[in-house]
Design brief:
Blueprint lengths: L4 E5 L3 H12 L5 E5 L31 H6 L2 E4 L4 E5 L4 E4 L4 E3 L2 E4 L3 E3 L12 E3 L3 H10 L5 E5 L3 H12 L3 E5 L12 H13 L3 E3 L4 E7 L2 E7 L4 E3 L2 E4 L3 E3 L2 H5 L8 E2 L11 E3 L4 E2 L14 H15 L11 E6 L2 E7 L6 E7 L4 E8 L2 E8 L2 H13 L5 H5 L12
Parallel strand pairs: 1-2, 1-7, 2-3, 7-19, 9-16, 10-11, 10-16, 11-12, 18-20
Antiparallel strand pairs: 4-5, 5-6, 8-17, 13-14, 14-15, 21-22, 22-25, 23-24, 24-25
Bound molecules: flavin-adenine dinucleotide.
Pfam families: Pyr_redox_2 (PF07992), Reductase_C (PF14759)
Protein name: NAD(P)/FAD-dependent oxidoreductase
Cofactor: FAD
Amino acid sequence: MVQAGVIVVGGGQGGFQVAASLREEGYQGSITLIGDEPGLPYQRPPLSKGFLAGKAQAQQIELRPPAFYAEQGIALLAPERVTSVDRAARRVGLASGASLAYEHLVLATGARARIPTVPGADLPGILPLRSRADAEAMLALLPQVRRLVVVGGGFIGLEVAAVGTDMGLDVRVIEFADRVLKRCVSAGVSAYLADAQAKRGVQFSFETGVIAFSGSEGRVARVQTSRDDDFEADLVVVGVGVEPNVELARQAGLPVQDGIVVDAHLLTADPAISAIGDCARYPTTWLAAPVRLESVQNAVDQARCVAARLAGRGTPYSKVPWFWSDQGDNRLQIAGVSEAGDSAVLRGDRACGKFSVFRFRAGRLAAVESINSPADHMAARKLLAAGTPVTPEQAADASLKLATLLAP
Ligand SMILES: Cc1cc2nc3c(=O)[nH]c(=O)nc-3n(C[C@H](O)[C@H](O)[C@H](O)COP(=O)(O)OP(=O)(O)OC[C@H]3O[C@@H](n4cnc5c(N)ncnc54)[C@H](O)[C@@H]3O)c2cc1C
């Protein structure tokens, strides 16, 4: 049990939650939350949804109002960057020149948007979408935008495409793979979501890479692709994945492998340092190999797990992963984690726009992808958490209430 002082690096979803949960757990020592973004910790999901659509203001996406931090005795240092970790002395160095002592350090440094390394990628008008500052930069440009090109048919790209069509923009999505969301969902769900966007006017270029951007009057004007297609663009949003922020951990000599390597308790190789959220790679019972997940659920539940451990109630992290994405009128919810090769069983009616795809691996339920079917999603989370056996026949039988499979 930690008593003296916890420092949390990263004032995002996970870092905020560690600080808040430590107090909920009754921890009475000092908590210092250090984040390099200006302002209060905020939620990222609205950045590609309501915030970008102009339906939510900056204050509305803050995780807590300013008074929360003083009331809870959480020292928030922002914007401030942690530049070094001295494990032997248990101190962190700050960009401002100060250094602070910790008894336990939590690395919740998140991830940063990957930027293509093709010619012209640094032209004004080409933006990633990771931070509130990115979204604000996009909002400032949008009034002059008619043609939006989205590079990457992942979750963020598709959400931005949906907001773009709502705004009446010409939207094109350029995707390297042969379908959207290929790494994350079954072919059926990919096809449904792409069709839905196409009906709203989004144009797709599949199996296409971007090879260069070119500009006019000091900003991006064209996107050149591997298929010799050129697309005109007033704004390019790049959603081609993220790089975990592992530099601090690496500098501190901690094992790093596409994420900070942690054990089942989310501890790094140093028992005085934990890592959580988008930056951490952890062993899970849901997959054969350790995994790094990027979701609000993962950041929040891992933060709670670490806070409980620091307060003396440690248990291995074992929560069922889940995720959501809003794309126009469609809400995708995923419970569990699928892999290429998992079989897919349809439940419900695709034509009605309400269905789920149950993914099975070696005869066991591995994940459930639900479109506009929150009841299936909630049941799936419970079934996965309980380890309840589900057969493909039961999954396909839409007349069977999934909740009845759970033990009373
Ligand atoms: C546009 C967008 C939409 C999303 N939509 C969804 C969604 O619909 N559903 C969902 O489940 N998930 C969604 N996500 C993912 C989700 O927001 C992330 O998984 C979650 O924020 C991860 O939390 P985190 O604390 O690990 O990292 P982050 O929230 O990224 O926070 C990390 C923070 O640490 C800071 N930092 C890094 N290094 C340092 C340092 N050395 N010193 C100080 N500070 C540092 C970073 O600047 C950042 O502020 C979305 C993400 C984005 C970007």
